[in-house]
Design brief:
binds magnesium ion, binds inosinic acid, 31% strand, three-stranded antiparallel sheet
Length: 178
Amino acid sequence: MDKDISKIIASEDEIREKVKELAEKINSDYKGKKMTVVGILKGGVIFFADLVRKIDTECQMDFMAASSYGSSAFSSGEIIIKKDLSLDVTGKDVLIVEDILDTGNTLYLLKDYILKKGAASVKICTLFEKPSRHIKPIKADYTGFIVDDLFIVGYGLDYDEKYRNLPYVGVLKPEIYS
Ligand code: IMP
Ligand code: MG
């Protein structure tokens, strides 16, 4: 375990099992549909890569990037789109794949944005969710793990652009960010 981590929240094996479980639900819900899977950079990219390889229905892939966090562990609430879709999602069934649903500011904006682009449907798949932190009326359609109000890193999740490459997810020691 990395020296900056106090506790493992999801091990490699637990993540692998969870990704499989989520993909099974998605495969049954989207049977026969033409999906566009939108990964949210950068945090969602590792989850995205593992999840899409378990999706067995026809799917296109695209990416968006939005930001509010900077190098701070606390959301500013202001979200900007840093990278737009490159595909036309008109009439498509879009599945957004994100690392974590925290305050909900990011996904609230992105879901609305993709719907306004003419998508037939937009659902959200997030690996982690912190329900106690939601401030926007938003719900994930597929959630991997529910977590308490702790700052976690690994498997795509960063603090100050570090720890994304950890193969597991753990709680970052508070002395690192305070
Ligand atoms: P939201 O807009 O507040 O829901 O936050 C979404 C983004 O904040 C996520 O995509 C993450 O990049 C980041 N974030 C929220 N909580 C954590 C955490 O515990 N660790 C690392 N990043 C986080
Ligand atoms: Mg993110």
